[in-house]
Backbone:
C-alpha cells in the first residue's frame, strides 16, 4: 500500500504533472471526480431510498423526479461541461510560435527522435525546461501513440500523415512515456525515456549531439568499427562522421550517452554484448542480422558502441 | 387539436432526423471546407466554414423549435379520453420530448462553432 | 378444461412441435431459436470469462511470465471479440427472439427461417473464429483490429482473416434477427395492441432493431474491404497507395458506438419490464421511456469519433462528437430516473432479480459518469487507450448489460424450465459477482491514471501499478466464483428447482398469460388487448385465451398461422402462414459459411460456387410459397385474407427493412469515396478517369429501362394480361443482365484494382452493384412462373420485386453519379 502513496507521483503518472498541459488536465480530472462522486452518491441514495420508503407518491411527483433527475440535472451539469470542453480544447490546441521543433517517428518497436541540425537519437526525448516544444509525429509502419502522461495527453502517429502537438516541461528531471496504441508483439516494451534539462544544459547537449561520432580509441573498438561496416550494421544504423548512414534502425552516433532500453523482463541489466543481441529481437530481419555474429565480434561491437559518446 | 395521423411513427422521426441531418451536414461541411481551404475566406469577419455552419445550425434550431411548439400544441385536452385522443396525446408528448432533446443536442454542437477556429 | 380446448391444444402441439431427437435441429420456431441463441451465448460467455482470467493472472505481478506476449495478444483479442460479438449481442437477441412474440401476443416471429438461419450463421461464425486456435493462427490485433497492423504487410498469414470472416458471419446473424424483430413488432402485434399499448420492451427492441440494421453494415463493409486488401492487395487502408488507415477506424466505430448502445438498451428494456412487476405498479412514465429510448437510438450514431480523439482530427470536429456524447447522457439519465421513480416508494421483496436491479444502478451509473468524463476531449487525451477506459467500458457493459441480463434470466427462468431457482445460491452468486466486479475494476481507474496503457502483457515494476493489478486479479477470481455460483444455480434448478406451472410474479404482460414451461405456440388463441397492462386490467384473459375464446383458435387447417395487423391501429389485416420444421436455414447458413471459408483457404472458386448456391436456396424460399385459399376464418367472426393474397404480405415488410442495411452499405461506400477525397492529395488520381463511353450509356439506359419494364409488368398484371406481364418482367431482367455485362464491365475496364485505393473502390462498387443485379434477376426468375396463379398473389409478389428493383436502380444511379460525374467537377 505504501507504493500507492508514491504511485501518484510515479514517472508515468497523469496525476504527477510536470508540464502545463498535463497540469490543466489533472485539475479537470479532480473537479470531475468530485462531481462524479456526488452524483453517484445522489443516485445510489435515491435508489436505496426508493426501496425503503413506504407510502404512495403521486404520479405528478414521480414525473417531477424523472424530469428533475433525468432532464434538468444532466442538462444543467452537462451544459456547463460541454461549454468548458469547447473552451479548453481550443486553448490547448493553440499553435505556439517560435517553438523548438522535434520530429518523432514511430517504428516497431522503437522511437526515433530528430532534433534541428540533423541530430537523431532513439527511445529518448530531451526537452529544455520552460520552453514550448513543437512535436511532429509520424510513423513508418503501423499506428503508434505518443504519450508522456506527466506532460500532456497522447497523439497518434499514423502512417501517411503528420500530427503536431506542443509540449512543455516545467521542471528538470526524468520521466517515462509509453506507446499507447497497440502496435504488435513488443508493444508493451515501446517505452520512452524523457529528460527535462535546464535550457543552457539542453543547448549544450544539443551542440554536442551535432558533433559527428568520435573515432574509436581502443583496439577492440577499432575492430568493432570494422565489424560494424563488414556485417551490414550500417544498412540500418547511421553513425554520422562515418560511412554508416542507414535509416531503418536507431541512430548510434552518440549511443553510449543514452540509457539502454530493456526488452527483457525482469530487467536483466545485461552486459552490452548481450544487450546488442536482445535488442534486435524486435523484428525477424533484425534478429537474423545479429544471429550470424560470433561472440568475439559482438564483444568488439559492444566496445565500439561504448566509446560512441 | 389536430386529428390523429394514420402513421404516427413517421412524424416521430422528424426531430431526430433534423438533428441527424444537422450533425452529418456539419461534419461533412467542416471536412469538405477544410479540404478545400475555405477557412481562408471570410464572410462578415468570420471564416466561411463557420459562417456556413452557423447558418446550418440556426436553420436546425428554427425547425426544431417549430416542431417543439407544434407538438406541444397538438396535444388534445385532458378531458378527451377515447383511444384516438389518448394516442394523439401520447404521440404529441413523444414528439415534443424528442424535439426538446434534439434541440439541446444541436445547441451543444452549435456552441462549439462559436468557440473555436476550424481545421486545426 | 373442456374437451374442445384439450383437442385444440393437442392439435396446436402437433402443428407447432419439433421433430424428435436430433431432427429437432430443423426447428425454426422462435422459442427454440431464442433458446439456442441464449445457451450458445452463455457458453461463449464462459469461454470469454476464462480468457479474461488468464489475462488477469498474467497481469497480477509485474514481469510475469505466465503467458508469453504473443499468446497474450491473441488472448485479449479473443476475449474482447468473444464478449462483444459472440456473447453480448447474440444473447440479447436470443432473449428478444424468445420474448417478443410472447409479449406482443403472437405465436412466432414473421420469418422463422430467417431467424434460424441467423442462429446457424452465428454458431458457424463463432466456430470459425475459434478454428483459428486449432490452426495456430489466432487473431492478435485487438478486438477492433486497427489497420495497418492487421493489413497484409504486418499480419501475414491467416489470423486476421479468421477474425474478419468469423465476425462477419456473426454480424449477418444479427442483421437477420433485426429484420425479423422490426417487422414482427410493427405488424405482428395482437389485435388492439396499438403502439402506445405495446410493452415497453417492444419499443426498446424496435429501436434496437433499427440500430442494428443501420449500425452493423459499416463494419460488414469495412471487414469485406480489409479482407479484399489482404486477399487481393486492394489498398483501401494503405496510405502508400492512396488509401487511409483511418477509414477503417471510421467504419469500425460507425458500427462500434451504436453497438454498445445495442448492447445496453435491451438490458434496460428488460429492467423496465421487470421493475414494474416487482413493485406491482405501472412504470412511472412510459412516455418518457419511449422518448428516451428513441433519442438514445438516434444520438448514439453521432458519437463514433469519440473513439478517435487522439488521431489528430481538427478540434472543432472532435467537439461535435463531444457534444453528442454528452447529449446521449440525457436520455440515459431519463431511463435511470424513470426506474427509480417506479421503485419509489415501495418495499418489494428483495428477490434475486431486484438485487441485480440495484447492482445495475450502482455499477452502470458509475460507468456512465466516467463516460461523461472521457467525452471531454482533453481528459480523454490522457486516459484513451489506458486501463481507465477498460474500467469505464466494463462498468457500463457489465452494469448495463450483464446485471440486467442476470435479472432477466432469474425473472424468466420459469418460462424456460417450469421451475424456480434457489434463492440462496442466487443471493450468494449476486454478492460474489457484485463485490468481485467492483474489486476488479474500480481500482483500474487508478491504474490507468498512473500510466498503464491497454493491451500490454506486462508492465514496469517502478510505476507503482503492482498492488492495484493484484487487487484486480483477486477481484477477478471472486467474480469468477460468483459466475460459477450463478451457473450452478441454473444447472441445479433444472433438477431440484421447485416446480412452477404458472406466473410466479403476478405480472401484467402477455408473456405470463400461458402455462409454464411455455408451449411452443405461446397462445391457444390470440388475445385481443385493450390496455398497456393486459393481465392487470383483465385478470381473466389467461383463462379466456386458454379456452380458445379469442382469435385463431383452430388447429384444423394444419398450418402454422399468425395474425398480421396494421402497424398503427393493430387491427388484423391478414393471416400469415409461417414455415414449420425445415433444414433449409441450416443448409443456407452452411453455404454462407462456405463463401467465407473459400476466402480463408484462398479457394475463391468455392466462394463463387457457394454464393450462387446461396442465391438459389434463398430464391427457393420465395419459390416455395404455400398454395392458400383467398380467405380464412380467423375467429370471433373475423374473416381475413391469407398473406399470399394481400398486397402487403410479411415478405414485403421483410424486404423493406432489408433495404436498410443494404442502403447503409451503399452509403458507406459513398462515404469512403468522399472521405478519401477530403483526406488524400491526388484524389481522384489523374489516371484513370472513368470512361463515359457508349457502353456506360448503354448500361445506364438498360438500367432505367429495366425499371420501366417492371412498371409495365405491374400495369399488365393489373388488367389480367399475364403473358404481357411475363414478357415485360423477363425483358426487364435481361436489361439488368445487359447493364451488368456491358455497363459495369466498362466501368472497370482498364482500372487496376490493386495499384491505388481509387481503382480498388471502383472495383468494389462494381462488384456491389453486380451482386445486386444478381439478386434482382433471381427475384424475377422466382416471380415469373407465379404470375399465372389465381387471386391476388401475383400482384403481391410483383410488389415485392418492384420494391427491391427500384431501390437498387436508385442506389446504382447514386453510386455511379459519384464515380462518373463528380470527378468532372472536383
Residues:
Amino acid at each position: 500500500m505504501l507504493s500507492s502513496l508514491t504511485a501518484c507521483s510515479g514517472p508515468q503518472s497523469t496525476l504527477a504533472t510536470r508540464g502545463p498541459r498535463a497540469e490543466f488536465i489533472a485539475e479537470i480530472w479532480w473537479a470531475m471526480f468530485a462531481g462524479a462522486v456526488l452524483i453517484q452518491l445522489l443516485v445510489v441514495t435515491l435508489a436505496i431510498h426508493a426501496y425503503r420508503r413506504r407510502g404512495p407518491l403521486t404520479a405528478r411527483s414521480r414525473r417531477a423526479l424523472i424530469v428533475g433527475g433525468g432532464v434538468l440535472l444532466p442538462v444543467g451539469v452537462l451544459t456547463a461541461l460541454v461549454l468548458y470542453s469547447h473552451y479548453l480544447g481550443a486553448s490547448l490546441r493553440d499553435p505556439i510560435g517560435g517553438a523548438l521543433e522535434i520530429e518523432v517517428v514511430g517504428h516497431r518497436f522503437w522511437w526515433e527522435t530528430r532534433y534541428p541540425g540533423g541530430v537523431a537519437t532513439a527511445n529518448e526525448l530531451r526537452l529544455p525546461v520552460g520552453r514550448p516544444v513543437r512535436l511532429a509525429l509520424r510513423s513508418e509502419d503501423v499506428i503508434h501513440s505518443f504519450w508522456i502522461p506527466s506532460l500532456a495527453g497522447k497523439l497518434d502517429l499514423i502512417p501517411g500523415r503528420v500530427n503536431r502537438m506542443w509540449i512543455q516541461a516545467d521542471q528538470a528531471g526524468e520521466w517515462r512515456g509509453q506507446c499507447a496504441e497497440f502496435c504488435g508483439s513488443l508493444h508493451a516494451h515501446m517505452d520512452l525515456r524523457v529528460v527535462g534539462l535546464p535550457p543552457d544544459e539542453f543547448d549544450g547537449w544539443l551542440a554536442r549531439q551535432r558533433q559527428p561520432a568520435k573515432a574509436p580509441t581502443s583496439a577492440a573498438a577499432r575492430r568493432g568499427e570494422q565489424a560494424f561496416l563488414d556485417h551490414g550494421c550500417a544498412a540500418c544504423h547511421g553513425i554520422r562522421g562515418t560511412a554508416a548512414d542507414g535509416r531503418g534502425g536507431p541512430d548510434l552516433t552518440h549511443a553510449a550517452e543514452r540509457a539502454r532500453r530493456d526488452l527483457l523482463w525482469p530487467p536483466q541489466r545485461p552486459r552490452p554484448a548481450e544487450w546488442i543481441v536482445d535488442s534486435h529481437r524486435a523484428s525477424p530481419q533484425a534478429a537474423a542480422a545479429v544471429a550470424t555474429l560470433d561472440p568475439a565480434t559482438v564483444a568488439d561491437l559492444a566496445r565500439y558502441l561504448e566509446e560512441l559518446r | 387539436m389536430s386529428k390523429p395521423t394514420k402513421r404516427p411513427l413517421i412524424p416521430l422521426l422528424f426531430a431526430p432526423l433534423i438533428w441527424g441531418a444537422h450533425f452529418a451536414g456539419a461534419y461533412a461541411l467542416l471536412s469538405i471546407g477544410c479540404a478545400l481551404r475555405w477557412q481562408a475566406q471570410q464572410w462578415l469577419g468570420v471564416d466561411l466554414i463557420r459562417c456556413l455552419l452557423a447558418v446550418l445550425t440556426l436553420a436546425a434550431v428554427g425547425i426544431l423549435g417549430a416542431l417543439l411548439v407544434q407538438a406541444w400544441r397538438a396535444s388534445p385536452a385532458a378531458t378527451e379520453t377515447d383511444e384516438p385522443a389518448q394516442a394523439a396525446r401520447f404521440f404529441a408528448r413523444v414528439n415534443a420530448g424528442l424535439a426538446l432533446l434534439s434541440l439541446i443536442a444541436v445547441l451543444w454542437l452549435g456552441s462549439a462553432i462559436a468557440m473555436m477556429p476550424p481545421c486545426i | 378444461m373442456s374437451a374442445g380446448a384439450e383437442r385444440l391444444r393437442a392439435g396446436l402441439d402437433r402443428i407447432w412441435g419439433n421433430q424428435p431427437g436430433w431432427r429437432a435441429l430443423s426447428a425454426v420456431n422462435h422459442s427454440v431459436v431464442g433458446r439456442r441463441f441464449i445457451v450458445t451465448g452463455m457458453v461463449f460467455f464462459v469461454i470469454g470469462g476464462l480468457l479474461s482470467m488468464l489475462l488477469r493472472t498474467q497481469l497480477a505481478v509485474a514481469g510475469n511470465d505466465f503467458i508469453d506476449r504473443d499468446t497474450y495478444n491473441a488472448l485479449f483479442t479473443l476475449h474482447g471479440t468473444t464478449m462483444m460479438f459472440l456473447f453480448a449481442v447474440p444473447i440479447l437477441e436470443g432473449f428478444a427472439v424468445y420474448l417478443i412474440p410472447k409479449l406482443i401476443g403472437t405465436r412466432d416471429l414473421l420469418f422463422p427461417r430467417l431467424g434460424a438461419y441467423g442462429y446457424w450463421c452465428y454458431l458457424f461464425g463463432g466456430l470459425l473464429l475459434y478454428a483459428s486456435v486449432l490452426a495456430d493462427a489466432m487473431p492478435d490485433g485487438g478486438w477492433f483490429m486497427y489497420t495497418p497492423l492487421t493489413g497484409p504487410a504486418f499480419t501475414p498469414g491467416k489470423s486476421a482473416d479468421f477474425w474478419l470472416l468469423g465476425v462477419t458471419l456473426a454480424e449477418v446473424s444479427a442483421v437477420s434477427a433485426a429484420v425479423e424483430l422490426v417487422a414482427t413488432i410493427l405488424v405482428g402485434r395482437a389485435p388492439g395492441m396499438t403502439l402506445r399499448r405495446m410493452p415497453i420492451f417492444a419499443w426498446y427492441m424496435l429501436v434496437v432493431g433499427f440500430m442494428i440494421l443501420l449500425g452493423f453494415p459499416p463494419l460488414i463493409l469495412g471487414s469485406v474491404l480489409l479482407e479484399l486488401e489482404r486477399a487481393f492487395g486492394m489498398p483501401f487502408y494503405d496510405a502508400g497507395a492512396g488509401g487511409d488507415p483511418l477509414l477503417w477506424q471510421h467504419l469500425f466505430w460507425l458500427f462500434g458506438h451504436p453497438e454498445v448502445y445495442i448492447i445496453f438498451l435491451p438490458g434496460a428494456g428488460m429492467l423496465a419490464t421487470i421493475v414494474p412487476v416487482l413493485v406491482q405498479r405501472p412504470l412511472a412514465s412510459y412516455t418518457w421511456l419511449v422518448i428516451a429510448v428513441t433519442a438514445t437510438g438516434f444520438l448514439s450514431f453521432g458519437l463514433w469519433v469519440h473513439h478517435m480523439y487522439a488521431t489528430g482530427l481538427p478540434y472543432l470536429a472532435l467537439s461535435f462528437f463531444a457534444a453528442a456524447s454528452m447529449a446521449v447522457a440525457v436520455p440515459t439519465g431519463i431511463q435511470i430516473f424513470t426506474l427509480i421513480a417506479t421503485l419509489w416508494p415501495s418495499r418489494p421483496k428483495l428477490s434475486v432479480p431486484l438485487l441485480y436491479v440495484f447492482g445495475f444502478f450502482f455499477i452502470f451509473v458509475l460507468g456512465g459518469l466516467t463516460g461523461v468524463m472521457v467525452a471531454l476531449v482533453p481528459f480523454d487525451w490522457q486516459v484513451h487507450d489506458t486501463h481507465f477506459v477498460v474500467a469505464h467500458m466494463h462498468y457500463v457493459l457489465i452494469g448495463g448489460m450483464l446485471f440486467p441480463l442476470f435479472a432477466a434470466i432469474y425473472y424468466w427462468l420459469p418460462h424456460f424450465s417450469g421451475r424456480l431457482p434457489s434463492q440462496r445460491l442466487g443471493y450468494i452468486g449476486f454478492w460474489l459477482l457484485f463485490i468481485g466486479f467492483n474489486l476488479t475494476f474500480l481500482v483500474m481507474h487508478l491504474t490507468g491514471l498512473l500510466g498503464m496503457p491497454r493491451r500490454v502483457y506486462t508492465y514496469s515494476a517502478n510505476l507503482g501499478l503492482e498492488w492495484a493489478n493484484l487487487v484486480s486479479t483477486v477481484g477477478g477470481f471472486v467474480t469468477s466464483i460468483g459466475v460459477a455460483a450463478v451457473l450452478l444455480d441454473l444447472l441445479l434448478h433444472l433438477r431440484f428447482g421447485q416446480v412452477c406451472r404458472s406466473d410466479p410474479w403476478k405480472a401484467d404482460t402477455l408473456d405470463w398469460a400461458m402455462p409454464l414451461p411455455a408451449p411452443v405456440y405461446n397462445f391457444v388463441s390470440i388475445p385481443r388487448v385493450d390496455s398497456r397492462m393486459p393481465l392487470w386490467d383483465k385478470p381473466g384473459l389467461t383463462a379466456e385465451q386458454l379456452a380458445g375464446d379469442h382469435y385463431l383458435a383452430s388447429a384444423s387447417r394444419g398450418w402454422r398461422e399468425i395474425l398480421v395487423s396494421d402497424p398503427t391501429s393493430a387491427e388484423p389485416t391478414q393471416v400469415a402462414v409461417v414455415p414449420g420444421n425445415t433444414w433449409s436455414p441450416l443448409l443456407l447458413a452452411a453455404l454462407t459459411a462456405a463463401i467465407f471459408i473459400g476466402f480463408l483457404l484462398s479457394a475463391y472458386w468455392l466462394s463463387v460456387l457457394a454464393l450462387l448456391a446461396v442465391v438459389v436456396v434463398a430464391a427457393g424460399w420465395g419459390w416455395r410459397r404455400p398454395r392458400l385459399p383467398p380467405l380464412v376464418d380467423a375467429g370471433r367472426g373475423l374473416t381475413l385474407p391469407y398473406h399470399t393474397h394481400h398486397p402487403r404480405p410479411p415478405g414485403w415488410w421483410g424486404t423493406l427493412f432489408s433495404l436498410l442495411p443494404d442502403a447503409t452499405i451503399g452509403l458507406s461506400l459513398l462515404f469512403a469515396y468522399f472521405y478519401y477525397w477530403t483526406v488524400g492529395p491526388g484524389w481522384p488520381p489523374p489516371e484513370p478517369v472513368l470512361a463515359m463511353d457508349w457502353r456506360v450509356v448503354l448500361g445506364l439506359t438498360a438500367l432505367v429501362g429495366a425499371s420501366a419494364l417492371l412498371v409495365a409488368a405491374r400495369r399488365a398484371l393489373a388488367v389480367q394480361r399475364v403473358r404481357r406481364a411475363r414478357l415485360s418482367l423477363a425483358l426487364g431482367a435481361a436489361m439488368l443482365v445487359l447493364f451488368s455485362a456491358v455497363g459495369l464491365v466498362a466501368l472497370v475496364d482498364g482500372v487496376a484494382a490493386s495499384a491505388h485505393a481509387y481503382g480498388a473502390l471502383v472495383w468494389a462498387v462494381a462488384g456491389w452493384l453486380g451482386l445486386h443485379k444478381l439478386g434482382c434477376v433471381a427475384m424475377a426468375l422466382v416471380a415469373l412462373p407465379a404470375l399465372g396463379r389465381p387471386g391476388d398473389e401475383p400482384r403481391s409478389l410483383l410488389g415485392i420485386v418492384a420494391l427491391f428493383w427500384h431501390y437498387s436502380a436508385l442506389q446504382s444511379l447514386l453510386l455511379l453519379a459519384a464515380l462518373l460525374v463528380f470527378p468532372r467537377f472536383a
